[in-house]
């Protein structure tokens, strides 16, 4: 069987469900700074003027909070078919066979469930939107940086994304969290050890340090308590400010994520769990106060369940 390395290009979008659709849409559109690009029957799609992705986040009305789907980009339709073949041969449960997608931007893709029961989409040829560089001071997300999952078996989930999707290990935080990449960015996916399967957080990249701090300040001035930050991580070397959305999901503003200088010679590192690796600057509140329980989130209610959209 052919290798899947290099077939995944990037993190495309994340879909979540929320019981109060109007409140969720308002938060992401006004407070968080995304641009609503489409809406249809209790589902809204949000993008960024700086990203060619058709959308970065979608929010769907549902009775319970859940992670609907996580979508990764593939090189081309042939890559989609190759990945689908690997998933099928491994006996992984498929939700949708490769074909034309009916979500905004269309494209060609398929859906399947990862070992923890999350719905994953792989797609190519999705129509792009016009994009422009953000101007100095624009404190809105530039792109989707990464997503972090909680798993009860980090090693098994890591092996799945490496072996079947071709992602590569960048680093470990002790034996509690691994960071996986598809290209030169330090990670587009991280997997953390947790007491149950859930969404840990979703991270959005800002234009630069100034815009990252302005965005952090906008939420603080708007009455949103910071969960953890501002600070700078050890693994990934990126800045962080974490906030709750209206339903207890953790969202992050970040910038300056580390890039891998030479993918072929890179040797994954193991970072100890200590104060400096948690926050190099020493400016963030202690991680033990709020962040550790917050990042565990509620057990995901949507596992092994197809998304209606």
């Amino acid at each position: 069987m052919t290798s899947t390395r290099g077939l995944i290009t990037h993190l495309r979008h994340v879909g979540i469900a929320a019981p109060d659709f109007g409140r969720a849409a308002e938060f992401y559109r006004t407070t968080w700074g995304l641009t609503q690009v489409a809406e249809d029957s209790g589902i809204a799609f949000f993008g960024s003027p700086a990203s060619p992705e058709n959308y970065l986040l979608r929010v769907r009305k549902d009775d319970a909070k859940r992670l609907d789907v996580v979508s990764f980009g593939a090189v081309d339709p042939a890559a989609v078919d190759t990945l689908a073949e690997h998933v099928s041969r491994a006996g992984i449960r498929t939700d949708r066979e490769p074909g034309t997608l009916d979500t905004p931007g269309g494209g060609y893709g398929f859906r399947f469930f990862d070992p923890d029961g999350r719905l994953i989409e792989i797609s190519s040829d999705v129509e792009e939107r016009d994009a422009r560089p953000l101007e100095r001071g624009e404190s809105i997300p530039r792109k989707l940086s990464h997503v972090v999952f909680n798993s009860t078996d980090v090693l098994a989930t890591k092996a799945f994304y490496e072996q079947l999707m071709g992602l590569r290990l960048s680093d470990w935080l002790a034996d509690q969290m691994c960071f996986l990449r598809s290209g030169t960015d330090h990670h587009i996916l991280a997997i953390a050890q947790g007491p149950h399967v859930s969404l840990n957080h979703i991270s959005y990249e800002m234009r630069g340090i100034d815009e990252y701090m302005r965005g952090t300040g906008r939420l603080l001035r708007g009455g949103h308590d910071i969960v953890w930050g501002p600070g700078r991580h050890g693994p990934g070397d990126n800045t962080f400010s974490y906030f709750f959305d209206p339903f207890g999901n953790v969202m992050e503003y970040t910038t300056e994520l580390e890039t891998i200088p030479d993918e072929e010679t890179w040797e994954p590192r193991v970072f100890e769990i200590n104060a400096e690796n948690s926050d190099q600057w020493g400016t963030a509140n202690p991680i033990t106060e709020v962040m550790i329980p917050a990042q565990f989130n509620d057990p995901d209610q949507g596992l092994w369940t197809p998304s209606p959209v």
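The longest helix spans residues 77-89. The mean pLDDT is 96.
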